[in-house]
Amino acid sequence: MNINVKQLFNIIGEKKEFECQIPLSELDFLKGFKFAKPICLCGFLFNRAGIVTLKFTVRFTLTVVCDRCLDELDRDYSYEFEHTVVHSLENDNDEYIVAENDTIDIAEIALSDLLLQLPSKMLCSEDCLGLCTKCGCNLNHSKCECGE
Ligand SMILES: [Zn+2]
Ligand SMILES: [Zn+2]
């Protein structure tokens, strides 16, 4: 989703709110992560004393597999991000977003921010009992006779 930021740069105090969804079809490239529904993206751009700030919240639900017991579960996440939007950049800086042709792609920014936050390890709960090493039953749901 492209947002034109020309007016934001020109008018101090200017604010632009946005809200959109990133459909599942655009999330296919995130290999290894299964989104249960489209990502919700909402936030605003604000020109404060000539500095344009982008602030947004990303909400999404991941279908994850517990590393210990292999149960599948849906888990909700919400992250907030903030960037300064500039016209050009002299040095590389991840905090800054460069608005080429006065445009920023908000979905692209959100996804690259998101990628850095996605959890690599997952447990259904901190005290998940996991699987029995002998019979493979899920010890959270049932008890077996293999152990002590
Ligand atoms: Zn588990
Ligand atoms: Zn067992």
Question: In brief, what are we looking at here?
Answer:
It is built from 2 helices and 8 strands.
Give the termini distance in whole angstroms. Answer: 58 Å
Structural class: mainly beta
Helix content: 10-25%
Instruction: Classify the beta-strand content into a percent band.
Output: 35-45%
Task: Please trace the helix and strand order, writing H or E for each element.
Answer: EHEEEEEEEH
Overall domain count: 1
Task: Extract low-pLDDT stretches.
Answer: none
If you had to describe this structure to a student in words, what would you say it looks like?
The mean pLDDT is 91. The strands form 2 sheets. Strands 2, 3, 4, 5, 6 and 7 form a 6-stranded mixed beta sheet that branches. A two-stranded antiparallel sheet has the order 1-8. It is built from 2 helices and 8 strands. The chain is mainly beta. A hairpin with a 2-residue loop joins strand 4 and strand 5. It has one domain. Bound molecules: zinc ion (2 copies). The site of one zinc ion has 6 residues, from loops.
